[in-house]
Design brief:
The protein is of the alpha/beta class. It is 28% helix and 22% strand. It has a single domain, classed as Response regulator (Rossmann fold), CATH 3.40.50. It has 3 helices and 6 strands, in the order ββββαβαβα. The strands form 2 sheets. A 4-stranded mixed sheet has the order 1-5-2-6, sandwiched between helices. Helix 2 packs parallel to helix 3. The radius of gyration is 17 Å and the shape is globular. The two termini are 28 Å apart. It is found in: Membrane. Keywords: Glycoprotein, Membrane, Receptor, Transmembrane, Transmembrane helix.
Length: 141
Amino acid sequence: KGQGYPHMNSIRIDGDITLGGLFPVHGRGAEGKACGELKKEKGIHRLEAMLFALDRINNDPDLLPNITLGARILDTCSRDTHALEQSLTFVQALIEKDSTEVRCVSGGPPIITKPERVVGVIGASGSSVSIMVANILRLFK
């Protein structure tokens, strides 16, 4: 859990170009919890595949010279509603926030860090979830 990021089940890798990832790392949670047990085959393996691909691409000087790929990977917890909620994280950088009325205690303007801009999303694992996420992301091009 990084500073300024409220998503417990996420990975952030800095890069010149950021790709998003949505994977069911955990199963559905029980008794009101969002996430349950780890899903090794369908969740962890797919997550590791994306991380492996990023490492291979970033470590090949001929493939994308002078460019590194980053990632913002989120856990869908095997729930379509949670995946939709998580996908909104990818468009936060495109949403303008009105900070005209916000001031620091010292009276100065606030320092607002803008989230990274995600240029594409890999996942989710099910086509029904992928279609819903694509419809949300399509609104933001």
